């Protein structure tokens, strides 16, 4: 019974999402495309950054590898195999990156992940210009015949990403990752092979992120290294997960939803306010302010805070009942 | 216990130094199956280092550590935990943002992948350790005695053969200390051996310890029954002639 | 030419050194993981740019203004935001300061747009020649001032009462509080000081390095690279780390091409993190 009830909300939401393309313009379909895509990548990040508590600020590395693997291979091996190749290559690349970065803890881990992503950005822009066309941009073969169909691709990707992370997060693996987040030494005392589980989380995360990168590239049609390897990509994924609630199941979707709509609304509503200067910059300024406020006043994020509040209320009700019973 | 048998744990001429200072200087002792051993020593004497050496958080410079006859020197902490050695920390480290139940389930997952089964086992242990009333509370919100007990419960859930309890009684009221010792008795009755670390000689501890060793400046200065140890001149000397509370 | 490249590297490295020393106080000593450090360097650059274009103020005079403004800005940021989360997990330090960095970067973009700005001094393009070595006067003056700033900072931390308090807190905040040190006030002061030094570094960089809103992120990462390379908690280490990064960047840039200076910097950083995580002069950290 309880199990069944847990499924009602996600199914209703899914039905709602499936109805949108029939009512919304292409403009809004694209907004939803980005919500789904980044929510999916946010789910992937959440395994490592939220559940396992390893603050990766370099997920653009896997995003970019997936994007370029798809872009470079699709014309030769076709769409499906190219997406598969993007998944495999981003997963494989995560092994050495994980082995290097996971030797470090806390801020040093975060710094190492930034350095790896930045290194790949510079390499893709310059040293591998022959392959990537550098800043000139690389044409990317489409995945679907009609641009409006990307809505479904992104929705499908998000559902898969959610299913994978939810399955892991609510099983023994999820408990183990949370134990690692709370205290790695203690986790080891209850027999958890912490390096292995961290790497496992990163590999799954990188796989999904790489697929996300390939969809992003196909939808864009042409990519430069800065589109996919930049810190802006890494940060966006982190921020939406934190805003929605790191280490919660639905957090990344809630975060992606709010961020995309807020930034779209902001860009449109302040576009003509000249004294503000660059409307885009103003939007990002508020974005920064939002992050500061969330960390200061709601570090558990929206979903995490609501869950805590409900749990607190449930405990309260429970206490009242017991008192009444006595 | 017969002396021909290989002890459960053999701590064999272990040396460890940090910088120029020996924190464990040629210490040897052993724990037999079903035995409760207490390590007594003032703060900074090197008790925690001994616990860290046994559980793999620190590697010995010299000497060997054997568990059930096999060397566990150089194994990772999680590998040693899998062999059947559980531990608690001197500074309690409950996984604060997980519930009491979740904490104990973590231990139970050592033997099952099923959440249902892990929960069942965890509930059993929560009952045994008297933590059932706090089952759904966040671990971080428990009082110190509760958190200390939770650490024991979590370690127990991994079904250890030997459990190490660093500073079991530190920070506890006399009543809470007695409760903890009662729990140790129950464990011993179930065949779990234990090593407890403690700062001062306490009567409650003496009642259940089979043997006591005294560590001072990284060296073992006495070993024996509680009575023997408390009358040992070196021990009295180490505690600056302070009257021992026996 | 090799010697000339080394000299250029040291001249640039001296500025990197004080960028790193500022972060060393904040991160290495006070354990605040400040991802907005580079944005304060950027702030120093824009302050200097504005004073120069509006009033013709010489950048080496406006260093003082940068110092004071950034000091106040830093203390305000500490008091309003960082102080509230300082006891929380380091992950929150990173996210909070990254948010502050994003605010500053985009504030700069709103005011100054994305143009690469620089200032032209009458002596910007004059060189001194020693034997075969050419030394740009702007670089030389910046180098000398950086050396003075570094020396003053070192003296302040090692010799003054406040410096001792800062070091005491870095060793053990609880014990420092027990011995009568006002931990919050001193931490705020130390944070302000680190930010002020970043501002001065920005001023000294401007005559030789353009400013645009994106330099903040670049300098933040660079500052962490320098601190880690030099060793956590060692201000002298950061100075040496800065010089070293300057030399590495110049050598890579000259012999391999511009883009290799970043590649090599990141690779060196990752190698140090992996094989000598305590840095060149740092105490080992467990």
TrEMBL record, chain A:
Protein name: Branched-chain amino acid transport system permease protein
Subcellular location as annotated: Cell membrane
Keywords from the UniProt entry: Cell membrane, Membrane, Transmembrane, Transmembrane helix
InterPro entries, A to Z: ABC_transp_permease, LivM-like
Organism of origin: Alicyclobacillus macrosporangiidus
Membrane association type: Multi-pass membrane protein
Coiled-coil regions, chain positions: none
GO molecular function: branched-chain amino acid transmembrane transporter activity
GO CC, any one term: plasma membrane
Membrane-spanning intervals of the chain: 7-25, 31-48, 60-77, 83-102, 109-129, 149-169, 237-259, 279-303
Pfam families (alphabetical): BPD_transp_2
Automatic annotation (TrEMBL), chain B:
Superkingdom to which the source organism belongs: Bacteria
InterPro entries hit by this protein: AAA+_ATPase, ABC_AA/LPS_Transport, ABC_transporter-like_ATP-bd, BCA_ABC_TP_C, P-loop_NTPase
ABC transporter domain residues: 9-242
Any single Pfam family the record assigns to this protein: ABC_tran
Any GO molecular function: ATP binding
Alphabetical list of SUPFAM superfamilies matching this protein: P-loop containing nucleoside triphosphate hydrolases
UniProt KW keywords: ATP-binding, Nucleotide-binding, Transport
Gene3D superfamilies: P-loop containing nucleotide triphosphate hydrolases
Cellular component, GO annotation: plasma membrane
Protein name: Branched-chain amino acid transport system ATP-binding protein/branched-chain amino acid transport system permease protein
Organism, scientific name: Alicyclobacillus macrosporangiidus
From TrEMBL, chain C:
Entry's transmembrane regions: 6-28, 40-57, 63-82, 94-112, 137-157, 188-210, 222-251, 263-281
Main location: membrane
GO cellular component: plasma membrane
GO molecular function, one term: transmembrane transporter activity
Keywords: Amino-acid transport, Cell membrane, Membrane, Transmembrane, Transmembrane helix, Transport
Membrane topology of this protein: Multi-pass membrane protein
Transport listed as a keyword: yes
UniProt xrefs under InterPro entries: ABC_transp_permease (IPR001851), BCAA_transport_permease (IPR052157)
Keyword field contains Ubl conjugation: no
Intracellular or extracellular location(s): Cell membrane
BP term (GO), one: amino acid transport
Family to which the UniProt record says this protein belongs: Belongs to the binding-protein-dependent transport system permease family. LivHM subfamily.
Protein name, UniProt field: Branched-chain amino acid transport system permease protein
């Amino acid at each position: 019974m309880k199990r069944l009830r847990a499924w009602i909300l996600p199914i209703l939401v899914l039905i709602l999402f499936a109805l949108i393309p029939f009512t919304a313009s292409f403009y809004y379909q694209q907004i939803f495309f980005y919500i789904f895509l980044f929510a999916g990548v946010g789910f992937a990040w959440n395994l490592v950054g939220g559940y396992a508590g390893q603050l990766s600020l370099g997920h653009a590395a896997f995003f970019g590898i997936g994007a370029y693997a798809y872009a470079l291979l699709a014309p030769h091996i076709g769409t499906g195999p190219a997406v598969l190749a993007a998944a495999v290559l981003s997963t494989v690349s995560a092994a050495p990156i994980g082995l290097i970065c996971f030797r470090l803890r806390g801020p040093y881990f975060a710094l190492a992940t930034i350095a790896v992503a930045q290194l790949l950005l510079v390499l893709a822009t310059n040293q591998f210009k022959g392959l990537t066309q550098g800043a000139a941009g690389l044409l990317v073969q489409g995945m679907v015949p009609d641009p409006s169909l990307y809505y479904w691709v992104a929705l499908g990707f998000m559902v898969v990403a959610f299913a994978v992370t939810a399955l892991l997060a609510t099983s023994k693996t999820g408990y183990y990752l949370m134990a690692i987040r709370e205290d790695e030494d203690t986790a080891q005392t209850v027999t958890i092979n912490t390096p292995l589980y961290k790497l496992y989380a990163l590999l799954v995360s990188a796989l999904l992120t790489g697929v996300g990168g390939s969809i992003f590239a196909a939808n864009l049609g042409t990519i430069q290294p800065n589109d996919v390897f930049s810190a802006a990509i890494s940060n966006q994924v982190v921020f939406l997960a934190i805003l929605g609630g790191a280490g919660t199941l639905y957090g990344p979707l809630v975060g992606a939803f709010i961020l995309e709509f807020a930034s779209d609304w902001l860009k449109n509503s302040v576009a003509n306010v000249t004294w503000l200067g660059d409307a885009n910059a103003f939007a990002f300024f508020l974005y920064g302010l939002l992050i500061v406020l969330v960390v200061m006043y709601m570090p558990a994020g929206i979903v995490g805070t609501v869950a805590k509040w409900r749990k607190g209320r449930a405990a309260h009700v429970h206490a009242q009942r017991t008192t009444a019973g006595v | 216990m017969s002396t021909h048998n290989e002890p459960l744990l053999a701590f064999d001429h272990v040396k460890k130094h940090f910088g120029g200072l020996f924190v464990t200087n040629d210490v040897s002792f052993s724990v037999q199956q079903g035995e409760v051993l207490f390590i007594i020593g003032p703060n900074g004497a090197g008790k925690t280092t001994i616990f860290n050496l046994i559980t793999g958080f620190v590697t010995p410079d010299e000497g060997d550590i054997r568990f059930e006859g096999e060397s566990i020197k150089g194994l990772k902490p999680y590998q040693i935990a899998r062999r059947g050695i559980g531990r608690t920390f001197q500074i309690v480290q409950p996984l604060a943002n997980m519930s009491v139940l979740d904490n104990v389930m973590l231990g139970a997952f050592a033997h099952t992948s099923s959440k249902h089964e892990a929960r069942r086992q965890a509930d059993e242990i929560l009952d045994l350790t008297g933590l059932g009333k706090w089952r759904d509370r966040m671990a971080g919100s428990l009082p110190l005695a509760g958190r200390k007990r939770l650490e024991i419960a979590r370690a127990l859930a991994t079904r250890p053969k030997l459990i190490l309890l660093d500073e079991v009684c530190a920070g506890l009221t006399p009543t809470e200390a007695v409760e903890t010792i009662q729990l140790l008795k129950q464990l011993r009755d179930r065949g779990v051996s234990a090593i407890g670390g403690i700062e001062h000689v306490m009567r409650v501890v003496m009642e259940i310890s089979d043997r006591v060793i005294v560590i001072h400046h990284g060296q073992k200065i006495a070993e024996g029954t509680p009575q023997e140890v408390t009358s040992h001149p070196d021990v009295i000397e180490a505690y600056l002639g302070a009257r021992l509370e026996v | 030419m090799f010697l000339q490249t080394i000299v250029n590297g040291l001249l640039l490295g001296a500025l990197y050194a004080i960028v790193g020393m500022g972060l060393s106080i904040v991160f290495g000593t006070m354990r605040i993981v400040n991802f907005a450090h580079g944005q304060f360097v950027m702030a120093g650059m824009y302050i200097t740019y504005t004073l120069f274009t509006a009033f013709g103020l010489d950048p080496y005079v406006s260093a003082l203004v940068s110092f004071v403004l950034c000091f106040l800005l830093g203390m305000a940021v500490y008091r309003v935001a960082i102080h509230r989360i300082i006891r929380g997990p380091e992950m929150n330090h990173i996210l909070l300061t990254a948010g502050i960095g994003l605010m500053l970067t985009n504030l700069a973009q709103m005011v100054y747009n994305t143009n690469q700005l620089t200032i032209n001094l009458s002596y910007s393009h004059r060189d001194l020649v020693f034997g075969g070595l050419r030394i740009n006067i702007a670089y030389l003056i910046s180098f000398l001032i950086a050396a003075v700033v570094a020396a003053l900072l070192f003296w302040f931390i090692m010799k003054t009462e406040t410096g001792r308090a800062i070091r005491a807190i870095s060793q053990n905040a609880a014990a420092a509080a027990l011995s009568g040190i006002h931990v919050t006030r001193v931490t705020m002061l130390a944070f302000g000081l680190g930010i002020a030094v970043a501002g001065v570094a920005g001023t000294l960089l401007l005559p030789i390095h353009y400013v645009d809103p994106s330099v903040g992120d670049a300098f933040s990462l660079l500052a962490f690279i320098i601190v880690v390379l030099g060793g956590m908690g060692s201000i002298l280490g950061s100075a040496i780390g800065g010089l070293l990064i300057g030399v590495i960047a110049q050598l890579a840039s000259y012999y391999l091409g511009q883009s290799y200076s970043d590649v090599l910097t990141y690779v060196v950083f990752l190698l140090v993190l992996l094989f000598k995580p305590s840095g060149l002069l740092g105490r080992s950290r467990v």
